[in-house]
């Protein structure tokens, strides 16, 4: 048996196995290996796997796979975790650096005092998209689609807590109108907490279940709520995991730029994964 050191991390309840490629070879991690380590009964348990590789130019390549072994261009909470761990392991120097993702380079910052990460995401197209009003179900006010690295449906509902998320999320996630890859689905509604006036829940493709938080989903949700409901940015959103994510951006007609996501990136534990040679 060979042993691979891993870090179990959480971003507001969205959890990951993170590997430093100095300790393992990227080619060792195919779909079956990813599913095994992410399995919550026979593995470490995670929503996804992240591989981090130091690159020239004060940058870290971040490769991300969902727990079903499918590759994703970007995951916001995984990027927050990657930023925190990259600084902690000295894969980069200084408080600001780049994460190289399949969705393009992402500027990252880590507070020297708190270790809290923030990521600067690519511009988001806010121009009118396909009309999804005909998909609305009972208790749903509007539905819109935004792409923040990956596509997200945002559904404004009367009561987030009462959404039949697994059933409704599964139906919308794979709707033919979204194309063969589908989209993540975020249900958003009002919160009773004045500090975080909105709360959201996410059905995440590739996990095919509810996750306790979604970073890119938080960005899509905040921008949709800002555009449709007039909410001011920066906007705090409470995740299903009970923690808050903050989204800020500058807005122009049809576009959001200087988009920042702040949240949690925390090491829960470090361990050794035993795998056959």
Could you explain the architecture of this structure?
This protein has 277 residues and is of the alpha+beta class. It has two domains: 2-123 and 264-275, Roll (Diaminopimelate Epimerase, Chain A, domain 1), CATH 3.10.310.10; 124-262, Diaminopimelate Epimerase, Chain A, domain 1 (Roll). It contains four helices and 17 strands. The chain has a 17-stranded mixed β-sheet that branches. The model has no long low-confidence stretch (mean pLDDT 94).
Secondary structure layout:
Blueprint: E1 2-11, E2 14-20, H1 31-38, E3 48-55, E4 59-66, H2 76-88, E5 96-101, E6 104-110, E7 117-121, E8 124-125, E9 140-148, E10 150-157, H3 165-173, E11 184-190, E12 198-204, E13 209-211, H4 215-229, E14 235-238, E15 244-252, E16 255-262, E17 266-275
Parallel strand pairs: 2-3, 4-5, 10-11, 12-14
Antiparallel strand pairs: 1-2, 1-17, 3-4, 5-6, 6-7, 7-16, 8-16, 9-10, 11-12, 12-13, 14-15, 15-16
- Counted by DSSP, the helix tally is 4
Number of strands: 17
The coarse silhouette is globular
**Backbone CA Rg:** 18 Å
- What can be said about the biggest beta sheet? 17 strands, mixed
Secondary-structure class: alpha+beta
Give me the CATH superfamily of the largest domain: Diaminopimelate Epimerase, Chain A, domain 1
The amount of beta strand, in percent, is 35-45%
What is the mean predicted local confidence, pLDDT? Answer: 94
Classified by CATH, the class of the largest domain is Alpha Beta
**What is the distance, rounded to the nearest whole angstrom, between the alpha carbons of the first and last residues?**
6 Å
Instruction: Kindly give the count of domains.
Output: 2
Unreliable stretches covering 5 or more consecutive residues: none
The percent range for helix content is: 10-25%
Enter the CATH topology name of the largest domain. Diaminopimelate Epimerase, Chain A, domain 1
User: What pattern of helices and strands is seen along the backbone?
Assistant: EEHEEHEEEEEEHEEEHEEEE
CATH architecture of the largest domain: Roll
